[in-house]
Amino acid sequence: MVSPLAHRVLPLPLLGSLLAATFWLGAQPRAQEPTQGLHEFRFAREDVLGSSSSLVLKAANEAAAHRAETAVFEEVTRLASVLSTWDASSEITRLMAAGGGRPSADLTTALQLAARWRTASQGAFEPGIAKLVSLWTESCKNGKFPADAELASAAASLQEPAWTLAEGQLTVRTPFTLDALAKGHIVDLASQKVQTVPGCELVSFQIGGDTRLGKTASPIALADPRHPAANGAMLMTLRVASGAVASSGGYARGFDLDGVHHSHILDPRTGKPCDGVLGASVVAKDTATADALATILCVLGPTEGLRLIEGMPGTEAVLVTADGKVHASKGLHALVVETTPEAAQANSNWPKDFALQVDFEIKAPATSGARGRGGWKRPYIAVWIEDLTGTPARTLCLWGDERRWLRELRRWSRQNAETPRLIELVSQATRKAGSYTLTWDGTDDEGRALAPGRYTVILEASREHGSYQLMRKEIDLGQTAFHVEFEDNEEIGKGKITFGKVGKKGS
To answer: Which listed residue, of 113, 168, 173, 473, carries a Cα 20 to 30 Å from 129's Cα?
Structure first.
């Protein structure tokens, strides 16, 4: 087994060679001349590489924007048929099952890119990690940790590459995955398709958080893994142009054993979860680089990880470690436009470290692909707190893409019609199907602490081509912890409301 202490950063010449190859593989197309009279168009699609996606364009007209949208997502679909290990019919899956063969040019490029990162990271980036993931998954099904001897054996086996590629022939030694960079690589190549449509410019394209940004600087907020609730404070906001941002971390996904959450990111050198890093975000020239490095930093940690980043021109990063500390590369401050300070206990009327937490699920309709471009329409959702007189106290979330349609959230809109400024403060984009957590610190929309007593939690949802739902649950906030559940409906799955102690990573 390779000791974690044996890792070292590669000399700059090799890193430079890797970056040159990486930037070429995901390079932005040649810039067009500035186009006058462009309008902004936004497209959201679900179930893209198993996640949600968002494409923002500037185009001369709607027809041009739709042509660019079609070109981008057709390229995503094409590349997924090559690189997705979740698709039994994809090229990579078929070649692994066959033990090898002659890969296409697209797969060859991705394999070469992964091999370079494996070398540059001295094994912190390891495609053969699929073997360890299977070991942990099976052990967790049985409610136990993998045996140390099993982990040591599996980690030792990863010292040899999972495949060899010589003279156009792939030979597979053990199952592998390219997931740690494939999504970013696909985002890069699909983004280039925007430039093939006259009169179109890329503003941003993201799949599951891996984001490629166009030549005009755009703000991009980084989630704080210490506060993973959907309405949690952001870690910071960056302004990035002609580059990419990707994040990784195990605070939301992973293995839960004996009441303890462990990161889904495993250290291939030890076989153990990378619990020391809650999350890492990387800014790079292309999304494949940012994607790979975000995973690598979770493995290496702040000291080795940032040393690696410092040797890569045009690349910056920030990590949040399990002790709550934030570690940033030297040049990151030049990109930061706003940071969010750590919040203090907001309501002294509540027991120390108590908070209210609302967990719920947005359902995907059974007929999700039947209507509209990209499938079903995401619901507009508002969640807020009212006092016993029916007066709104605090809006926890307001998710809707266009302000004019917020009126479909009938109760919230009627109650807050006199406070248009609130929309500016709390409105965010709609969300994909999945589970979400919101927290409340006991203050109102103006930041004033509220007294203990009875309140009502309200969840309102409205979906185009769907239904309207209004859910209410009365709660009594005092000195006693509790949790109550609410039933599901057509738009919202079963959920619960919890009042009690929360830690850095949620309740």
So the answer is: 168
